[in-house]
Each structure stands twice: as C-alpha cells, then as structure tokens.
Design brief:
alpha+beta, 31% strand, two-stranded antiparallel sheet, 2 helices, 5-stranded mixed sheet
C-alpha cells in the first residue's frame, strides 16, 4: 500500500485461484492494515473493476464502501473503476475489528 498522509492506498492484491476462499486474502490484508496503522494510516482506498463482483463482495465484507466511479479507468476495454474507501475503525477481519 502507498501511504499518503493518513490514507493508505491499496494498489494491487491477488490470490491465485487455487488458494481463494481459504483466508489468504484476508490474512494478507490483515497484515497490510496493521503495518499501515503503525505508519499512521487511518483510512484505506482502492479501485476495482466495475465488473469484479467477487472483489466487490470481498472488500464490502471487510468494511469498504463504494465512494465513486472513475469512468474508463482501465486501459483494456476502457472499463470503469469503483473507488472503495474504509476508515480503519470500520475494517472487519473475520468478526474482529482492527484496534484503533
């Protein structure tokens, strides 16, 4: 994640298909959230493809909410991006909040 002021921006995360739905993505993000918190982050942002329903549901369960759409964000096909945001206090990993 790139930290700009108190906002951490998640630029990219991927889990190989064979390892999905095993808690790998949640574990990666949990560590990222904790490290970012240590560096002063109080909120997180990310973009995802408008068509990526799986990622949208995953991030929503963690406490992210859609903020706005960036039209034509992705070069390949000009797909729109959904920008999602979450304050540290709202992040939820497996039923536990990240302590603030």
């Amino acid at each position: 994640a790139a930290l700009e002021g108190s906002a951490a921006h998640i630029t990219s995360i991927a889990v190989k298909e064979d390892f999905r739905r095993r808690g790998v993505g949640t574990a990666i993000l949990s560590r990222l959230f904790e490290r970012s918190k240590e560096r002063g982050a109080t909120s997180f942002t990310l973009e995802l493809r408008r068509s990526n329903d799986v990622a949208f549901k995953f991030y929503s369960k963690l406490g992210f909410t859609p903020s706005f759409i960036i039209e034509g964000y992705y070069d390949e096909g000009g797909e729109d991006a959904i920008v999602m945001v979450a304050p540290l206090s709202r992040l939820n990993l497996k039923g536990r909040r990240i302590s603030t």
